[in-house]
Amino acid sequence: MESTLKKSFYYLGIVAALYIFFYYILPVVFKILGIAFKIILYVIMLAGIVFIIVMIAAFIIKIVRERY
């Protein structure tokens, strides 16, 4: 009887741990990943915009130097 009770508490603990993981921990992990991806994409977007502006400025400077 004692081993059956041990097994039942063991399985109950596994079910409780899975419930806590899926209900509380997993949404927080996904929320943190979403924020991280949003920040990374924002930084990549800003770096691309700055790169394009620098390339346009270099092109304009090259054209101005050739003409004058």
List SSEs in N-to-C order.
Answer: H
Range of helix content:
over 70%
**Distance from first to last alpha carbon:** 98 Å
Low-confidence stretches: none
Number of discrete helical segments: 1
- Average pLDDT taken over every residue: 95
Q: Which class best fits the helix and strand makeup?
A: mainly alpha
The largest sheet, given as strand count, sense and whether it forms a barrel, is: none
Number of strands: 0
The coarse overall form would be rod-shaped
The whole-angstrom Rg is 29 Å
Share in β-strands:
under 5%
What does this entry show, briefly?
With 68 residues, the chain is mainly alpha-helical. 97% of the residues lie in helices and 0% in strands.
What can you tell me about this protein's structure?
The chain is mostly helical. Helices cover 97% and strands 0% of the residues. The protein contains one helix and no strands.
Which secondary structure elements does this structure contain, and how are they paired or packed?
Layout: H1 2-67
Pick out its properties.
68 residues, mainly alpha, rod-shaped
